[in-house]
Amino acid sequence: LNKRTAPYFIWTVVALACALYFLLSRSWGRQSCSEGYRGADKAASRKRVPVSLCLDGLILTKDSSGCRLIEAAVGPFLEICAACEAFTIALVQDDDQEESVRQLLQSIGAFDVGLRRHRVMFSSTSEGRVSMVRQLQPKIHFEALESVSEALAGKVPEVRLVGSEPWPTLREAAQGLG
After folding, report:
1. pTM of the prediction?
2. What distance, in Å, lies between the first and last C-alpha atoms of the chain?
3. Whole-number Å distance between alpha carbons of 160 and 176
4. Positions of the chain with pLDDT under 70
């Protein structure tokens, strides 16, 4: 070691020490996450599979008197909300219909099992629903309309057309998610 090479040696040692520090600090952070600490719940929620569901035809039916629940689909829907990071999209024409959908979701306890209020979305057209699902980039989208399912083919990793032969009901379509 002489006067010319000493600075190179010192800066190399400093760089290696910093790299070693960052490498070890990252691995320690992962260990504490897996062992469990107060933030473990947040880490677990980030690992939930993102899915999107159209509510119309799967959970809700609409008639002249307003929105009604499809009782057979409530159980599977709540299971999806509990097991996955669920985003829902309903077709509505005005604010009153939006509030009606929110109240129905509240009445079945969807917000209590894991559905977040800010993940309940609305569109006035099925084309708008296609655009929203493409932006969300879910792993799986549950759909009731064949036209929407076809528009999403190749744009979303998996689209499950509920009511089709492979998935006649939401219960069959939701199997294997949890």
Report:
1. 0.72
2. 62
3. 13
4. 27-46, 178
